[in-house]
Amino acid sequence: MTAPTRSTLALDIGGTKLATGVVATDGTVTGLRITPTRKEEGHAAVVRRLFDLAHDSFADAGQPHVDAVGISCGGPLDAEAGVVHRPLNLPDWDAVPLAALAAEEFGVPAHLVNDATAGMIAEHRHGIARGASDALYLTLSTGVGGGAIVGGRLHRGAAANGGEFGHIMVRPGGRLCTCGRRGCLEAYASGTSVALRARDALAASDETSLLSALETVRAEDVVAAAQSGDRLALSVWDETVEVIGQAVTDLVNTFEPEVVVLGGGVTRAGALLLDPVRAHVARWAMPPAAAATRIEFAALGDAVCVVGAAVHAADRSEEPSHA
Amino acid sequence: MTAPTRSTLALDIGGTKLATGVVATDGTVTGLRITPTRKEEGHAAVVRRLFDLAHDSFADAGQPHVDAVGISCGGPLDAEAGVVHRPLNLPDWDAVPLAALAAEEFGVPAHLVNDATAGMIAEHRHGIARGASDALYLTLSTGVGGGAIVGGRLHRGAAANGGEFGHIMVRPGGRLCTCGRRGCLEAYASGTSVALRARDALAASDETSLLSALETVRAEDVVAAAQSGDRLALSVWDETVEVIGQAVTDLVNTFEPEVVVLGGGVTRAGALLLDPVRAHVARWAMPPAAAATRIEFAALGDAVCVVGAAVHAADRSEEPSHA
After folding, report:
1. Which of A209, A275, B205, B255 is at 20 to 30 A from B81, Cα to Cα?
2. How buried is A215 (Cβ within 10 angstroms: 0-12 exposed, 13-18 middle, 19+ buried)?
3. Class in CATH terms, B7-119+302-318
4. CA nearest A120: which of A141, A99, A146, A140?
């Protein structure tokens, strides 16, 4: 196998997993490595393991020529400065100069990007939203985030963050969100929230449930139990797809995109998620917007943010005015 | 006064009022005329009165040279084809070829645009959103609609409608909206809905209210009574500003605009509307987005859609490829 002539080393920091890989200009990923984040170890230890993982990816990929490093991380962060500010799902991270640390570690320019923005970039360049003029990306993961392509270009917005879709209000006065407000989408639709809601439902119920036997209930357990027809799991899951359908309908009505791409771990639920969300939008969005919009799963799977971080870094490295 | 060298005749059809005027390239409006829509007369009679009003505006303005006619109307409509499709607030209008009728009446090309889009265009070119790269327009009128500027350009979206902000979900399972769904912003925040909610509250209450004496309660009566400290009016108004604040917060979180412009008749409430909406966004939007966004009233008042229709028509007439 010939090494691609230009490659980017990409690092993705999630609340649950770290991923690294080498990405060629055509979007091909080699040396993909994934490991648990173990955020309880603190940011210094996590960053060290992340960098070691990236070195392993680089070796696995046959040590290609790498022009730049791309890093994807949950927000809020300052992409321009390359600094991570207290991501809601990485509590002890505060003002970590991740781009500078990576540039020093790997000896090439490093660029930081919000993970949901990375997902949008990846799916627009190499995935299911390829060629779309207007597209949205909604990641349902440890947290919930989003990104937007408008008029063929990445939407940055006045806050350079490009869209906090996780904080669309879906249940006024409802469950407490990580942001301090009640009723945000993230408080219902993140993997963390699905698990938490199932645990709360178990605690409040005398019903027998497939989940009762488990020591810790995770989002994937809820999905599996719902698939088996478990009543308690089904009621948690029905509310989950209801709020996601409602938020996606809001996004379809307000942005009128060609495609809404759903990514993140919660999409492993498959048709149990996609079918009711599509049905909700078809039933409740304004008819012209509903007719113009497709709802699809991300095509790039676990590598989506790795690919997005790489595309972002490669694009940034090509900008003549960028220091 | 010298007549401007290039002018556009502009017509605005609202659920409550018709407006016409002649708009110069610098945004100056002359011959502005406003009259009640009286939609119960049916579309043929309304269109006839609209065209007569426009002839009056043209005469008032000193019969300048007019290159094009711009028409603003509530959606849904097909702007490209110049056809109005059953606007929710003009029930008997169906497939009215308004642009073709106007072109025949006035002998110059005519261009149709959604009224909320017209508001956005006007405020971006000549109003409070001038020079903004990302801006939103939310009209709180007979109905509720919206428009967006993203990356300095008008956002059309895949449905060419550019954003149905009136159907953001604010109260799941709540009041029935004109669109058939329950709980949309429009079901609470349009002038029509404010009046209707006050009437419902009066019917359900034994309380004495300043509104009790009125034969018909209109939105402006609710605002006036709330300003006087009337308890029933205040409770209706508090819910109104709460849902508007919530929807604007969703828009600020998802679009991250520099400015959200509020227009339409409901903005005559002044500080009673603007202060609590600003406070809601400052308190509840994600901090970077809240810090980056201004919330302002439209600067162009009653002429906003007239100006927007004119700017749209003038821009379209300049497009070389346009037939």
Report:
1. B255
2. exposed
3. alpha beta
4. A146
Which residue in A has a C-alpha nearest to residue B154's C-alpha?
A: A151
Contact: B159, A291; criterion CB under 8 Å:
yes
Beta carbons within 10 angstroms of residue B17's beta carbon:
17
Q: Are the C-beta atoms of residues A94 and A68 closer than 8 Å to each other?
A: no
For the domain made up of B131-298, the CATH class stated in words is: alpha beta
CB contact under 8 A, A254 and B163: yes
Cβ neighbors of B297 (< 8 A, separation 6 or more) are B128, B261, B262, B263, B267, B274
A155/B151 Cβ within 8 A: yes
Task: Say if residue A76 is preceded by a cis peptide, omega within 30 of 0.
Answer: yes
CB hemisphere CA count around A271 (13 angstroms): 1
Q: Beta-carbon neighbour count of residue B101 at 10 Å?
A: 17
**Measured between alpha carbons, how far is A185 from A241 in angstroms, rounded to an integer?**
11
A294: closest chain B residue by CA: B158
* ipTM computed for the complex: 0.91
CB B222 within 8 A of CB B233: yes
Residue B22: its H or E element:
strand B17-24
* DSSP-based three-state secondary structure for B77: strand
Q: Do B292 and A159 touch (CB under 8 A)?
A: yes
**Class level of CATH domain A128-298:** alpha beta
Nearest CA distance, A149 vs chain B (angstrom): 10
Contact at 8 Å (CB) between A268 and A223?
A: yes
pLDDT of A75 over the 80 cut = no
Per-residue pLDDT of chain B (323 residues; tens, 9 = 90+): 454 468 999 999 988 899 999 999 999 999 999 999 998 998 899 999 999 999 999 999 999 999 999 999 987 788 889 998 877 667 788 889 999 999 999 999 999 999 999 999 999 999 999 999 999 999 999 899 999 999 999 998 888 777 889 999 999 999 999 889 999 999 999 999 999 999 999 999 988 899 998 889 999 999 999 999 999 999 999 999 999 999 999 999 999 999 999 999 999 999 999 999 999 999 999 998 999 999 999 999 889 999 999 999 999 988 764 44
Q: Where are the domains of chain A?
A: 7-114+302-318, 128-298
Q: Which residues pair with A22 in a beta bridge?
A: A9, A30
CATH of domain A7-114+302-318: 3.30.420.40
The model's pLDDT over A206-225, given as tens digits with 9 standing for 90+, comes to 888 999 988 899 999 999 99
DSSP B112-163: EEEHHHHHHHHHHHHSTTTT-SSEEEEEESSSEEEEEEETTEE--TTTTS--
Instruction: Please enumerate residues of A whose Cβ is less than 8 A from a Cβ of B.
Output: 76, 133-134, 146, 150-151, 153, 155-165, 167-172, 179, 181, 246, 249-251, 253-258, 284-289, 291-293
- For B289, name the nearest residue in chain A, comparing CA atoms only: A159
Closest to B135 in 3D by CA, of B145, B122, B120, B125? B120
